[in-house]
Amino acid sequence: MRNQAIGVTEGTPIFKLVLAGEGGVGKTSIVNHYLSGGHNEPPMTVGSEFAYQEVKLEKQTIGLSLWDFGGEIQFRDFIPVFCMGAHGAIVVFDLSRYSTFRQIVPWLDLIKDSEDNIPLILVGSKCDLDCGGPSEEEIQELCEKYKIREYITVSSLTGENITKLFVRISEILLEAVKEGDITPAKSVKVPCSGNESICDAE
Q: Beta-carbon neighbour count of residue 133 at 10 Å?
């Protein structure tokens, strides 16, 4: 039996996954490419967007509740609210714009302040345009400081590593469950209108 509105299979463990980073780094393109299997040019996210996708792993299927945040500074005050109950986070910078790597620390701090112990993945987007990105030493230093589980480069234009990214974060989330760091949800929380910021899909 499935929830027809968002396609949730009954009994599937569900993980809330947030995507954060500066505006224009490609967060929405990454999600759209994964969901549609192809590239398009979505408008820049204003505020937040939500999507749901089930990921079939070798031994288990899990549900990812994907929360994509706009990168503009005026929306940062809302991040703690939308991070509540998150099980993991993908933090994205643009490999063709070094400034977006330097600006990633405030996003990591906001996530850590909201949900300190959730798994983090660092993503360098637009690897097809890689020019002047951070050094391996800078990436390693950042990953060590913030206990980032993995660093992956992707391209929503060519599709490189897009599926790998979501399979890998799914595997990491299941590892975190075994380690006792997180507990999956049984229902999907979605952004909703009105005075409430988050509500049940069902």
A: 21
- Phi, psi torsion values for 160, nearest 5 degrees: -60, 125
DSSP 6: T
What pLDDT does 191 receive?
A: 58
- 8 A C-beta contact, residue 158 and residue 190: no
Residues with Cβ < 8 Å from 97, sequence gap 6 or more? 25
Residue 6 has pLDDT above 70, yes or no: no
Q: Please give the distance of CA 5 from its chain centroid, rounded to a whole number.
A: 21
DSSP of 150-195:
EEEE--TTT-TTHHHHHHHHHHHHHHHHHTTS---BSS-EEE-SSS
Q: Which CATH number, 3.40.50.300, 3.40.1380.10, 3.20.20.70, 3.30.43.10, labels domain 2-200?
A: 3.40.50.300
Tracing tokens 């500066």 back to the chain, one arrives at 22
- Kindly report the three-state secondary structure assignment for every residue of 50-102: EEEEEEECCCCEEEEEEEEECCCHHHHHHHHHHHCCCCEEEEEEECCCHHHHH
Per-residue pLDDT at 154 exceeds 50: yes
